[in-house]
Design brief:
about 140 residues, about 0% strand, globular
Length: about 140
């Protein structure tokens, strides 16, 4: 990969994982795109975020679960967080710092209590139940 492409990818990752939630929320909402080409490109960026900073990625997904007013964004974040924390082949849990693990536990339990959408609550409960057995 040429240096310009690498710099662009690093800038995108910094934007997605930075303090502003909007770029990351846009990224995950477009991961559900019907365009295979667009979705593939965004999946690559998502995976780069996962490789470069799994703690920030996990916390950004949790941030969307907590604070996004958009039901679709919260649902997508719940699905992605469940996949990242529970799937054997891509499980991030062992890679996360103790602080991130503790924060995620608290956030997930809070979100279960506050979430009005039953479909999202179920996804969160599944994630917590499966995650419990990973420890």
């Amino acid at each position: 990969m040429d240096p310009e492409s690498t710099k662009l990818q690093q800038a995108l990752i910094a934007s997605f994982l930075g303090p502003d939630p909007e770029p990351f929320e846009t990224l995950i909402s477009h991961l559900m795109s019907s365009s295979n080409e667009r979705r593939s490109h965004l999946e690559l960026l998502f995976n780069l975020c996962k490789q470069s900073d799994p703690n920030s990625l996990s916390l950004k997904l949790a941030q969307i679960l907590q604070f996004s007013p958009r039901l679709e964004a919260r649902a997508t974040a719940a699905i992605l967080l469940k996949k990242q924390l529970t799937q054997d082949d891509s499980c991030l849990w062992p890679q996360l710092s103790a602080s991130t693990q503790s924060s995620l536990k608290s956030i997930l339990l809070r979100c279960i209590q506050w979430e009005d959408a039953k479909t999202i609550s179920k996804k969160l409960c599944d994630t917590v139940a499966i995650g419990y057995f990973l420890q």
